[in-house]
Write a structure and sequence with these properties.
The complex is a heterodimer of chains A (about 500) and B (about 100). Chain A has 19 helices and 2 strands. Chain A is an all-alpha fold. Chain A is globular and about 70 Å long. Chain B has about 100 residues and is mainly α. Chain B has a single domain, classed as Helix Hairpins (Orthogonal Bundle). The longest helix of chain B has about 30 residues. Classes of the chains: A mainly alpha (about 500), B mainly alpha (about 100). Chains A and B meet through helix 5 and helix 6 of A and helix 1, helix 2 and helix 3 of B. Chain B: It is found in: Cell membrane. Chain B: InterPro entries: CPA3_antiporter_subunitC, NUOK/Mnh_C1-like.
């Protein structure tokens, strides 16, 4: 396994897949697309297994090392993120197969043409985004991160725009946000480069000294990446973009795309910036995260549309992710960072399941107004069950991935004496329970005798694939050992910031 | 003042102009231009920073700017296509802004 180019394979397999789907005639798009997705998931999981068995890996593309060449590099943290992408991406691909296919039954040729194009474009762009996401997780230099980040962003905007109609203004706003966010990140890269003269992540971390320049670089990078991760109060673009996109796309955006910028921020924190520079910014991010947990959950509770509810819940869950920038450096060892990483993967599965379920429900009911879903639960048991499984993880009930990560959060917060974090995590869980049960209670009310909404038949694949992701979210609570062991490979958080990364 | 500093300062000015246009303007083409000016500013700062290294210009930032220009061009193309589609559907070239709430 040592000599095989597994890292680059995890990038070029989906990339080649995207090319194939584009070259073949459009009626084969779905078949090519699902084949390429299976191959991509297999390539990624092979890489993850190799990392778990034989440790971190490094590849020099074309035999060129830094500074001129591109180096790819994987440790336990990136491997876990690639595994998350493979699992969520694989299941969403199966869902998309039925989701985009089932629509063109109206017999209207013009409509069929539009649906066919939408399906073909989904597969092309999604495989491209998959390649770029793996590219971010494998990058070992700051500029490579910028390029792959930009590909992820542009792809995500195009995927949102696929829905047409009211998704177009949402996509437009998302485009401006994602472009400005990555340009601010690039500005930070410029500042770091002018100081240390290297782009390689680790060399930059070794020679960057605390000072005004490092501070300025950190602030612009944090603003840019927090904008792209939709941290309160920069979350304004997320709910419309995630809610108005096609359901398969919403799941990908909420589960995977926002984790990409979170991943880059964590790397910057642990590897690049000295503790004295990042400490105050980290405290501020933690405070904003706490506000986001409460505010996002409160807004989710007040939404009228199911997909908007799930999207605002993402705003709240992003808040938990940002707690690590306060807790991670202070907590003993790597407990705080582990909590964040575990939260990222369990949220990916849970939120993926909820968006897929919401899409299946909306397809059956014909809209996603929550009030008008009274009594449809019994007839749509499968998607509502998947929605509930995802909800269990969001609430942090045992056994679920959400429970494990919240437990890690609370223990590291208790160790550092951050009582307010413990309170906010508990309150956020309660609010999550409130908005999940609000939907479930309404859906499982006894149906009104007259005027019960009539349901359109939906392919069983939609409900089942949502259920699979929900089951994975719960399983992450039962078998937390393996992911946490993978996270320790190569000690990604080994040097705690308290000890400092300075040479 | 050495020439490279002029580049850096002018670049910073362009960044501010770009951010201003992005935040304040409502017309989508103007905002797209704002993002373009923002990226030009970042690129100029990169080039200016490159001259600080002793022993002639440094090739790495210039390669970065070239890549950045390619990204900016494709992003602009995507943005303009979206603006055109929005105009076709709604007859206007601006989108209503929901506040940060």
């Amino acid at each position: 396994m040592r000599g095989l180019p597994l890292i680059s394979a995890s990038i070029w397999v989906p990339l080649l897949g995207a090319l194939f789907v584009s070259l073949w005639p459009r009626r084969y798009a779905a078949r090519c697309g699902i084949g390429a997705s299976i191959a991509s998931a297999a390539a990624a999981l092979l890489l993850v297994v190799a990392v778990a068995l034989s440790g971190p890996r490094r590849e020099r593309l074309g035999g060129w090392g830094a500074p001129a060449g591109i180096e790819l590099w994987i440790d336990g943290f990136s491997a876990l993120m690639i595994a998350m992408t493979a699992v969520v991406g694989g299941v969403v691909s199966v869902y998309a197969l039925a989701y985009f296919r089932a629509k063109d039954s109206s017999g209207d040729p013009q409509r069929q043409e539009v649906e066919g194009r939408r399906e073909a474009y989904f597969w092309r762009i999604w495989l491209l985004v998959w390649a770029a996401i793996n590219g971010v997780f494998a990058s070992a230099d700051l500029f490579n991160l910028y390029v792959t980040l930009e590909v992820v962003g542009l792809g995500a905007v195009s995927l949102v725009a696929l829905a047409g109609g009211r998704a177009l203004p949402a996509a437009m706003r998302y485009l401006f946000v994602t472009l400005s966010g990555s340009l601010l990140y690039l500005l930070g890269v410029v500042l770091i480069y002018s100081e240390v003269g290297t782009l390689a992540l680790f060399q930059a971390g070794e020679s960057l000294i605390a000072g005004t320049l490092a501070q300025a670089a950190l602030v612009v990078m944090v603003v840019g990446l927090a904008l792209k991760t939709a941290l309160f109060p920069l979350h304004f673009w997320l709910p419309p973009a995630h809610a108005d996109a096609p359901a398969a796309v919403s799941a990908l955006l909420s589960a995977l795309v926002i984790k990409v910028t979170f991943y880059i921020l964590v790397r910057l924190w642990v590897v690049v910036f000295p503790a004295s520079v990042s400490q105050p910014v980290g405290e501020a991010l933690m405070l904003l995260g706490l506000i986001a947990v409460i505010w996002g959950s409160w807004r989710a509770l007040r939404q009228q549309r199911l997909k908007m509810l799930v999207a605002y819940s993402t705003v709240a869950q992003v808040g938990y992710l940002f707690l690590v920038f306060g807790l991670g450096p202070r907590a003993d060892g790597s407990a705080g960072w582990q909590a964040g990483a575990y939260f990222a993967i369990s949220h990916a599965c849970a939120k993926g399941a909820m968006f897929l379920a919401a899409g299946a429900i909306a397809r059956a009911v014909g809209h996603d107004q929550i009030e008008e879903m009274r009594g449809v639960g019994a007839r749509l048991a499968l998607p509502f069950f998947a929605f509930g499984l995802g909800g269990i993880s969001l609430m942090g009930l045992p056994p679920s991935g959400g429970y494990v990560s919240k437990w890690l959060f609370i223990t590291s917060a208790a160790a550092t004496g951050d009582v307010i974090v413990v309170i906010a995590v508990a309150l956020g869980g309660l609010l999550a329970a409130a908005y999940v049960f609000r939907v479930l209670a309404l859906a499982f009310e006894r149906a009104p005798r007259e005027g019960a909404p009539s349901l359109r038949p939906i392919p069983a694949t939609l409900g089942w694939s949502a259920l699979v992701l929900g089951a994975v979210a719960v399983a992450l609570g039962l078998a937390a050992g393996a992911p946490l062991a993978l996270l320790e490979v190569g000690l990604p958080f080994g040097q705690s910031l308290a000890e400092g990364v300075t040479p | 003042m050495i020439p490279s500093q002029i580049y850096v300062i002018a670049g910073a000015g362009l960044v501010s102009v770009g951010v201003f246009a992005w935040v304040v303007r409502r017309h989508l083409v103007r905002r797209m231009m704002g993002v373009n000016i923002l990226s030009t500013g970042v690129f100029m700062m990169l080039i200016g920073g490159a001259r600080r290294v002793e022993g002639g210009p440094d090739g790495v930032p210039q390669a970065m700017v070239l890549t950045g220009i390619v990204v900016a061009v494709s992003a602009t193309a995507l943005g303009l296509a979206l603006i055109q589609r929005i105009y076709d559907q709604r007859g206007e070239r601006s989108v209503e802004e929901r506040g940060p709430m």
